[in-house]
Amino acid sequence: MTEVGEAHVLVSPFPAQGHVPPMLKLAEILSHAGLHVTFVNTDNIHRRFLASSPALQRLAGLPRFRFRTIPDGLPEDHPRPFLQFLDLEESLRTRSREHYRELLVPTGKDPDGWPPVTCAVADGILRLASEVAAEMEIPVIFVRTSGACAVWAYLCIPDLIKGGEIPFPEEEEEKEEDGLDETIRGVPGMEGFLRRRDLPSFCRNAKSTSDRSLQFVTNANANVRRGRGLILNTFEALEGPVLSHIRSAIPISYALGPLHLLSRTFDDCGADAPLSSNSASLWQEDRSCLKWLDSQPQRSVVYISFGSVTMMSRDELMEFWHGLVDSGKRFLWVVRPDLAEGKIEEAIQEDLEKETKERGCLVGWAPQEEVLAHPAVACFLTHSGWNSTLESVAAGVPMICWPFFADQPVNSRFVGDVWRFGVDMKDKRGRSVVERMVREVMEGERAEELRRSAGEMAELARRSVGEGGSSYRDFENLVKDIKAMSREK
Ligand code: UDP
């Protein structure tokens, strides 16, 4: 029989920016709680980590934490665009199985003298992990890196299909736009406000139930019901009602968010350590923008970032650019080299560049948590990725939401209509909309209201991760449950 202290978890994220850092933060606090933790990266992701992440140094000092890597099965020079995540998922499942199995249940002695793996903590969309763990009869606790609101919508997809709500009925072309405003009945708790356009993009894009992406997300989310529990990066004060619905389907669901704050509660560095030591980015951060922010007045800057995956046309990018310029506000914009086709420098005309030289700053990748926490930042124009949303919530920064895909349309509906600390720009385009929304969130009474609600939720987020807070308690329960599993052997 394995002793309680010998619990060993194998933590396996899906290899992408939106998944690896939050699961790494979870892995780190599990290790602080006394568990042995092996974190599985793909070779490709690990190489990028080694080149860019300040968090690695800190992790190297933890006695019960280690990295292991597996190949992802794709050729070395493959660009691995996240928009083709199904190909990456399939490659991992079919070509990396043996490597993963060897980490889960090694054939030889552990080189560090660690106990055998007693629990797999696996990303809900990483079928490789759930299938191999089931084969080897290792208990699995799943992690979904989306918010509870999106996870609940995903879990309801089979009912939406049964009820004839998806795929959307075919409309004549001119009615199609209005059709997207139809409210959805099949997601309990969201009947009054969730419209077709707010469903995860896979629902909107599917022309039939055999659509490959729709099938994948439906099956992956159905699969998480079969685990020993589900971990979500959210907190009761933010998503309590939705969490109750999820718990009606998956009774053991732990809400541990915001994980980037919870990790600071347990971190030896303490809550006041510089945020930079916390960063787990896959891109090299350009920290020069923090200096630039230091020279800007308080609450004067719009921070713009569309995350690691969003792509837009050159025209769309130019409309954002013009809208920002026309708003007259200061701005810090993360323009990834692959955000739009062509070089941004070419796209931005010289006269605009001159006009905004003093009040604009462009970087390829920013230290986002630090940027959002900076007193000069007044609002966040975001694609509504869940990590970005939570980071903005934690910093008390109101949002302008321009969702791109996956769970983002659900998140932005909640920000704009339920939590009301931002505005939803979904499906809207053009410089005048950008300008209007920036002004709405930066000027006058409405801006004050948004900032007040954002500030209140930030305070609740902070409390949830402190000793006795809801996320802190759920984390303690998770550790207790994992330790109990190690006694089952
Ligand atoms: N991020 C960052 N620097 C940037 C842009 C983004 O560190 O310049 C981080 C951000 O803090 C967040 C993650 O990248 O943790 C993006 O995750 P999210 O879920 O918001 O969106 P995704 O990239 O998965 O679409």
From TrEMBL:
Entries under Pfam families matching the protein: UDPGT (PF00201)
Superkingdom of origin: Eukaryota
Keywords recorded for this protein, A-Z: Glycosyltransferase, Transferase
Enzyme Commission number(s) from the entry: 2.4.1.-
Gene3D superfamilies: Glycogen Phosphorylase B
One MF annotation (Gene Ontology) recorded for this entry: quercetin 3-O-glucosyltransferase activity
CDD domains documented for this protein: GT1_Gtf-like
InterPro entries, per database record: UDP_glucos_trans (IPR002213), UDP_glycos_trans_CS (IPR035595)
Family statement: Belongs to the UDP-glycosyltransferase family.
The protein's name in its UniProt record: Glycosyltransferase
Organism of origin: Phoenix dactylifera
Lineage: Eukaryota, Viridiplantae, Streptophyta, Embryophyta, Tracheophyta
Designated gene of the protein: LOC103704098
